[in-house]
Amino acid sequence: MPSTAQYLMLSGTLFAVGLVGVIVRRNMITVLMCIELMLNAVNINLVAFSHHLGNLDGQVFAVFVICIAAGEAAVGLAIIIQLYRLRSTINVDEVRTLNG
Amino acid sequence: MDQLTSQMHLLVFILIGTLAVASSILVVAMRNPVHSALFLLLTFLCVAVLFVLRSAEFVAAVQVLVYAGGIMVLFLFVVMLINYRHLPEERVTSPVWLGGIGVGLAIFILLFALVRPGVYHDQSPDAVKRLTTVKETYLAPHPSDPDKLVRRTREVANRNAEAVGMALYNEYLVPFEVASLFLLVAMVGAIVIGKRELSADEEESTPQFIMDRAETEKDVKEAMSA
Question: What is the pTM of this model?
């Protein structure tokens, strides 16, 4: 039986990989994918603690997190499409009009 | 739980966990977003298996349906709409990639320092039972009077989905409804943001424009003949 600590380590690894992706990649679609990866790592944490404590609340929260992730992906991808139409780029570093 | 099943669980966890971490690294490393999306799909499926190992069958099913089914299709459609090949060839990583990897390593070390193995040993023995059993009411014949029925409750095992459903619709009813409202707002927002502004040529070919013009022409003709 894998222990809770092993699950937490796995989720920490996935979170770190997702964070590196968000900072390092320039393609906006990949950045959004990495955000999904981080949310998934959080879900692993919630489910692991739900199992550890014998409490269903963690699983319910995981369902809510999945729901929020779906909405976030839909709106984010719509923004990316609109940005591509306006600027013909999805490069994070080139969209810096608000940067002053 | 007997020893062999426990060993099997650990083996599956190690295999699937390694696969999940490897494919998540490939998500970040792949140049083509389609490849990234497919490796992300593999990661999601691995995570669903890990959920099943933690007796969260309902969350695993939702993970496969929503993430692997819905969100991945959305990502792949957007990758197709963007037409990645028309974008200029350039470096995949941002200039701060070294700093990014440094921050990632720092977070990684921090999370590993927080999670010391052995701290979470005292897991409650009936934890799994509490996650998967539900109380069910049923009607049973009265012990003394055979014409009457009495209400009794019994515990039914292996019903994770039902248990999560009971929690969602009792304790978490208000957040559940707010989540549905959130999804509605997100849907409307995605449609409004993603909608294309029509150019002047295209506007003339919309049904609304044609009908409006026909009506105007009719009005003009009536005014002329009067």
Answer: 0.84
